[in-house]
Amino acid sequence: MAIDTEKQLEELVKDIVNDKVVVVAGTGVSLLSLEKTNWAFASWEGLLRAGVQYCKEHDLINKDEESLILAQINTQSTIFMTSAAQQIVYFMKGRGVHFQRWIQQTVATLKVADKRLINTILRLNCPIMTTNYDNLIEQVNPDLSYYNADREQVLIIEAIRKRDPKYIIHLHGHFRHPDSLVFDISSYEDIKRNEQIQALLNSIDTTATYLFIGCGVAGLNDANLGPLLHRSNELFGNVGFKHYRLVRDSELKEVSSNRRLVLLSYGKEYSDLLPFMETLLNKVKALKEYHEKVARDLLEQKLRASQTSDQEELDLLNQLIRMNKKNDE
């Protein structure tokens, strides 16, 4: 979609201020918050390779099996990589002791090294969904409660409906519950057959504006986000609702079949994402301050006009005091 970047950015800012936006954080958010030495466990490919290594170290696979799985991973094809994941789970004998131990030795070890990007996302004050297994966002804000898409559908629907920023929704599961991880073919198929999860996807407010940060094309086509975007496109494809995906300049040429998905460039390099997000946050803060100033001015005009009862005047004064206090903070 050819776009006027500045115009779309201003529309995104307005949507955030008006509590319409839900952030979807992908692998890129984790990668930019970690030391590079820990990147492997934050990406799906890296996790697959670590799974092969675990199986090798524990004599769960032979050399031929190792070569076959690595060859599938090397294709970089979602189909073959999902098949590789299925085989890793098989050789670990399902999601028992080996699988759980492997997750504890990989994803569970990830620690935030740079809080700035996550902090900036949190300060937008939007509800957050993530396709990541890790808890890096919760590390930055321990007050956040997390929900798993496979077990807390009603709470998730309510949190999204209210645009509640106190919760983070793990669409692909959380490492503390290894059985919840959407990892291999079986787990993706389970999502499609799970009536509760499908009910969740059908109940999430399709008029929300989704802001995809650190999400690649494959992530948008997965078993959770794909149906949600497709359904919203079918319902609202010709009207004003839209979603945004933050991308590098080189990714702007990607063609999307979704008429509602706007590609918004944050710069040439991955490292440009943080400055872009800081600019976005500053624009949001400026617009909020402007709205608050307008509201204060209107209240002051009403008070000066003295066209209110004593109780109404007291209520207006209290409201004005709260606004001034919030502005000072």
Please write out the topology.
Blueprint: H1 5-17, E1 21-25, H2 27-31, H3 44-57, H4 63-74, H5 78-91, H6 97-105, H7 116-123, E2 128-130, H8 136-140, E3 145-148, H9 153-161, E4 167-170, H10 185-193, H11 195-203, E5 209-213, H12 217-220, H13 225-236, E6 243-248, E7 261-267, H14 273-305, H15 310-328
Parallel strand pairs: 1-2, 1-5, 2-4, 3-4, 5-6, 6-7
Helix pairs in contact: 1-14, 3-4, 3-5, 4-5, 7-14, 9-11, 14-15
Structural account:
InterPro entries: FAM118 (IPR038916). It comes from Runella slithyformis (strain ATCC 29530 / DSM 19594 / LMG 11500 / NCIMB 11436 / LSU 4). Keywords: Acetylation, Phosphoprotein. The chain has 15 helices and 7 strands. By secondary structure, it is α/β, with parallel strands linked by helices. The protein has 3 domains: 18-34 and 114-271, 3-Layer(aba) Sandwich (Rossmann fold); 38-109, no CATH class; 280-328. The protein has a 7-stranded parallel sheet with strand order 3-4-2-1-5-6-7, with helices on both faces. β3 (145-148), α9 and β4 (167-170) form a beta-alpha-beta unit. α3 runs antiparallel to α4 (63-74), α9 (153-161) packs parallel to α11 (195-203) and α14 (273-305) runs antiparallel to α15 (310-328). The chain is elongated.
Sum up the structure in keywords.
3 domains, 7 strands, seven-stranded parallel sheet, acetylation, alpha/beta, SIR2-like domain-containing protein, elongated, Rossmann fold, FAM118, phosphoprotein, 329 residues
